[in-house]
Amino acid sequence: MPDLSRIELRQGDITRLSVDAIVNAANSSLLGGGGVDGAIHRAAGPELLAECRTLGGCPAGEARITRGYRLPARYVIHTVGPVYSDGQSGEPELLRSCYVNSLTLAVEQGVRTIAFPAISCGVYGYPMQDAARIALGTTAGFLATSPSIEKVIFVQFGHEAQQVYERLLKDMRSGI
Ligand code: AR6
Fold it and tell me: Tens digit of pLDDT for each residue in 57-67?
């Protein structure tokens, strides 16, 4: 049974959260960019980029972990979402892998609290509704067999995105 009981929603800036790990919507170079990636690198400081340079990049769908440096979060899990084209080119599977691989790394590192942004929903153009369904469904499935994770927070940057997540979670909780 998918487990929604440890999922929370929050609106705001993910870099401010005091959780064990925040997830970065990175690109495959792992060397920074705009959006949430830029915000995380600015808040973490240059030591984060220095550690990312040692990783040699990351293919779409996979994830890598670094320290959080000046962030309140102890770790940053960098994952690379798919660039959306038509939804029929493997994007859903890749996005699902981002969540599974990030959560798997989190469990391996003993992370108990983790926050995700809406991976691929900015520059990479993934429709928010479809992406949020994958994010919530995949995470709920993962949590069903992962008791060590206490809380997963989905952070939305704007009110509209927040409403999409809220509606979906409500429907999922009432079994729709
Ligand atoms: N806190 C929470 N969410 C945020 C924040 C923040 N501080 N800033 C933006 N968002 P994007 P992508 C939201 O574009 O689509 C970068 O250049 C934003 O509103 O950051 O996966 C990378 O280097 C959106 O809903 O990531 C890659 O090249 C969501 O985070 C590329 O963008 C993701 O938007 C990755 O594109």
Answer: 999 999 999 99
